[in-house]
Structure formats: C-alpha cells, structure tokens
Design a protein that fits this description.
This protein has a domain of about 100 residues: Vaccinia Virus protein VP39 (Rossmann fold, 3-Layer(aba) Sandwich). About 40% of the residues are buried. The chain has about 220 residues and is an alpha/beta fold. It is built from six helices and ten strands. The protein is about 25% helix and about 35% strand.
C-alpha cells in the first residue's frame, strides 16, 4: 500500500500584498461560527492550518481560548507576531494536519478553511481520525473541501489518486496536492461523526479575461 502523500504548505513568500490582505480577513462563515459556538458554551478553539492568522486572531479577540498550527514557518511567524502586537495569548505550534500536535479530547471546536483538501484520499481518512481524536464528545468542526464540480478537478494536472491532483500552475500552491470530494465521499470519510450541515458553495471570479468557477463543500460535523 502506498504512503500518504507528503504534506506541504503554501509558499507565502511569493504572494502579492493585495493577495495577502485577502488572507488576513476572516471568512464570512467564521462570524456565524463565533456566535454559534459561544452560544453553546464552547471555548477551546483550534485553528487548523492557521495561515496568516485571520481566524486565530478573530477568535482570540472574541474571548476564545485559542490554539493554532500550520506547517509553514512563514505562517507561524506571521500569526505569532500579529498576536504579540495585539497582546493576545495564543498557543501556536508548527505541525502537520496528518498528526495534529494537540492532546486527545482537548478541543471544543475546530475550524479548517481551505486546508484539509491539501492531501490525498488516504490522507483525508487520516485527518478525519485526527479530528475525532482531538475533539471532545459533542465538539464540532467546520471544514471546507474542494468539489469535483470545480474547475481545478477538470484540469489536466498530475493525478495522485482518483480524487487527488497536484496543482500544476505557478503560484503559492504549485505542486500542492488537492483532494476533491463529492457528496457520497464526504459521508464515507466522516462516517464516525454526525454531519450537522453540508453546503455546496460556488464562487466566481475573473482573471486575465477569463471567468473561473470555484466550488467547495462547506461541512459542519459533530463528534458523537
């Protein structure tokens, strides 16, 4: 049996300032989750794959006990410096989502936006096991997954397995694996959780005179 493809992070060094600013702004869904989890009395929050720290900082500033990690040293340094500038105490570690660097049943809630798709099919099952391990019973995780309806899945990029391709275009995700799911596959991977909600979200954007359609699954799961 082949090994899980090696994890790798974004190359944050090559992105423009304008693009970086976008990744410093919390996703709209995070504001709903702030309210949802606070109203449920959840407090111990994990930002899985924190990137430049947009959700790490937002949740910490709103009173959550926040932990965060990322595989990229540049992401860790940026998030750490941002937290220090604001006087926020955050437990920040460098690590791999295939082996989440936190204790069993230590988290009330986890957010992983645009992160866990960066592996292959075997890696996805491993990450699901890791989420189950670190979540408390009744804890929730909100995650996004690439959809097989999106333009990237239709590109002639190197194939890792039937659900995974290597992004073969210049940019911060060059040769980073991208896993793509459909509805049935989501239920297979997260079979040990209660699935609270699934949304199929489409985003449209123009680049160099072309319109691209990016589709993602937004999934809210709860540990049984």
């Amino acid at each position: 049996m082949t090994n899980i493809i090696k994890s790798q992070g974004w190359n944050w060094n090559i992105i423009s300032d304008d693009f970086a600013d976008m990744w410093k702004t919390p996703a709209p869904e995070s504001f709903y989750l702030l309210h949802r989890w606070k109203s449920q009395g959840k407090n111990k929050f994990l930002d899985l794959g924190c990137g430049l720290g947009r959700h790490t900082i937002s949740f910490a500033a709103n009173g959550f006990d926040v932990s965060a990690f990322d595989i990229s040293p540049d992401a860790i340094n940026h998030t750490t410096n941002w937290a220090q500038e604001l006087g926020l105490h955050i437990d920040i570690k460098m690590g791999d989502m295939l082996n989440i660097p936190f204790q069993d049943e230590s988290m009330d809630c986890i957010l992983c936006m645009n992160v866990i798709s960066h592996t292959d099919t075997r890696g996805m099952y491993k990450i699901a096991d890791e989420l189950k391990r670190v979540l408390k019973t009744g804890g929730e995780c909100y995650l996004t997954l690439g959809s097989k309806e999106t333009w990237g899945y239709k590109q002639d990029w190197p194939l890792v397995d039937e659900n995974t391709k290597l992004r073969d275009e210049p940019g911060p995700e060059y040769m980073v694996p991208h896993f793509y799911a459909d509805y049935d596959l989501i239920f297979k991977i997260f079979r040990d959780f209660n699935i609270v909600d699934i949304k199929h979200v489409g985003n449209y954007y123009d680049h160099d005179g072309q319109t691209f359609e990016a589709y993602h699954w937004h999934v809210l799961i709860k540990k049984k």
